[in-house]
Amino acid sequence: MASTKASILAPKRSKLGRAVSKVLHLRSATGIAPFDGVQNFKRQEKVNKAEKHVGKVINNWPKSFIMEDHDDEEEELRSRQSMEALVAKLFSSTSSVKAAYAQLQYAQSPYDAEGIQTADQIVVSELKKLSEMKQCYVKKQFDPSPGKTIIRAEIEELKSLIKTYEMMGKRLESQFRLKESEILYLKEKLEECQRQNRSLEKRLNQSGQLNMVDKLPHSGPSHFITVLQHTVKSIRSFVKLLIAQMRSTDWDLEAAAGSIVSDVIYSRADDKCYVFESFVCRVMFEGFHLPSFSHRRQSLPEQKNQQQNFLRRFTELKSVKVMDYLAQKPKSAFAKFCRARYLHLVHPKMEISFFGNSSQRSLLDSGEFPESTFFASFAEMARRVWLLNCLAFSFNPQATIFQVQKGCNFSEVYMECVDEEATFSYENAPEADPPVAFTVVPGFRIGKTVIQCQVYLSQVPTK
């Protein structure tokens, strides 16, 4: 205590001594410079006596007055530490609530009643602690040992974080197990589908091609109609792509439709698409009555085994990717058919307007095939038409093709109107004699079975 008192009084005494020395300085008071050692000695003696007197006065001051500043600093330090302890407890309690909430979520799925109850109790307990901390802060009731409290709060906060991460880990683990079970289920389902496919393939191989040929005369029309529907769908898909290319290059669709079929009044503007569909069908089905669309005469063995040969071609091409087949067999009969029909259907000026050049035509002339989306859509359509031709010549008697001329009267036996609204209007007006404007999709005959051709009816009688 003596040392502390000395350290506090020392700077005050020295400062006071300097002030007294300034006051008692003879040179500043008289303006006369000392001239011998006697005067200097007397002056110094007076200064020392004054300092001793001031020191006695200071020593008689009360201790509360001397320690006032020191107590204020200690109080401020304690207050700051108490606030830090309060904030640390607040963070620790918040982390505990977060950990309890994570535990509550984990206990809900799968449902764990005990886990939910434990998490609920922890949340209620921590909320009570928060309420108590609020009251302590309002009443200025601070922790007497803030240092230990801060350490304990940090430890509790770390424990809560670890618990939160553990809950997250358990939840991710349960999700992982769920995904694993789904994968196992899908694998089992895939294996079951593969077993069924192998069984069907085995049955097909055991039945053989001859048995299929024997069954075709009886189940041929329904099978032919199914293949024809897929063919028409493929044709319409290509026609949509063709019209989209024409619109993107600013073609006059009305003039183009008029150059194909003239003097037709359409019920809707969008019906012009049937004209382009009719043109594509006319080109693709040209020569359908010939085996493989070729005028080449068949040899006697080929004529004898015609049904088996065409069924083999149908089976070979029905389940392959058309572009892969063309790449593997660029000199096959189908490749020649595909190349010839593209050059006939797509005019050079049309190709240049679509793509800016005639590179696709040049590739086809050189014996190769382009890999564009446009040609891939065309090739798929050509494959469907080729399969329909193979199927037609695998029947006995073989399927034949027909279409009706412009101006013919509509007949429900041989025709089907592509515009259902027009058919309805003609049914409500029986006195009208609806003429055919053009054939959209040709019709077919298989023995005594007739597959109707699809036609577009004109809105006024055609002269």
UniProtKB/TrEMBL annotation:
Residues 155-210 form a coiled coil. InterPro entries: DUF641_pln, GIL1-like, GIL1_IRKI_C. Residues 401-456 form the GIL1/IRKI C-terminal domain. Keywords: Coiled coil. GO terms for biological process: negative gravitropism; response to red or far red light. Residues 79-203 form the DUF641 domain. PANTHER family: PROTEIN GRAVITROPIC IN THE LIGHT 1. This is DUF641 domain-containing protein. It comes from Erythroxylum novogranatense.
